[in-house]
Amino acid sequence: MERSLLRVFSCKNGVKQDGVLSPVMFCVYIDDLLVQLARIGVGCFIGRKFVGALAYADDIVLIAPTASALPKMLAVCDKYATEYYMAFNAHKSKCMVLLPSVCRYLARELGNCVFTIGN
């Protein structure tokens, strides 16, 4: 191959947005986090199958059965982010609570909950 056809570029962080390999690389990179979340055993399960953390493209959804389980899951994410030099964007993160109609009275109590990631 001719030298003129080769182009050198530096990659300092991440993968190209909307790149074909981006979702695959994200899955490879984030797989250990999903394993760690499953091991702590506080997320949601269907039978013995852990469904407390779902990941696709560059998004992660944490599904916690209780308000006390979510901070434990977020702590695992924080530790992982520190170890692997990554950051979660807290400004883009959302928390959604689903309550059956017989438990609507708990909605006021959930307003007192504070969840943090990355300080």
Please explain how this structure is put together.
The radius of gyration is 19 Å and the shape is elongated. It is 32% helix and 10% strand. The longest helix is centred in the first third of the chain and has 19 residues, at 22-40. It has 119 residues and is an alpha+beta fold. The chain has a two-stranded antiparallel sheet with strand order 1-2. Strands 3-4 form a two-stranded antiparallel ribbon.
Structural features:
alpha+beta, 10% strand, 119 residues, two-stranded antiparallel ribbon, 3 helices, 32% helix
In short:
The protein contains 3 helices and 4 strands. It is α+β, with helices and mostly antiparallel strands and 119 residues long. Strand 3 and strand 4 form a beta hairpin.
Secondary structure blueprint with pairings:
Elements: H1 22-40, E1 45-46, E2 49-50, E3 53-56, E4 59-62, H2 69-83, H3 107-110
Antiparallel strand pairs: 1-2, 3-4
Helix pairs in contact: 1-2
Distance between the termini: 49 Å
Instruction: Give the helix tally.
Output: 3
Mean pLDDT: 83
Tell me the structural class.
alpha+beta
Q: Main β-sheet, in a few words?
A: 2 strands, antiparallel
Along the chain, the helix and strand elements come as HEEEEHH
Rg over C-alpha atoms, rounded to the nearest angstrom = 19 Å
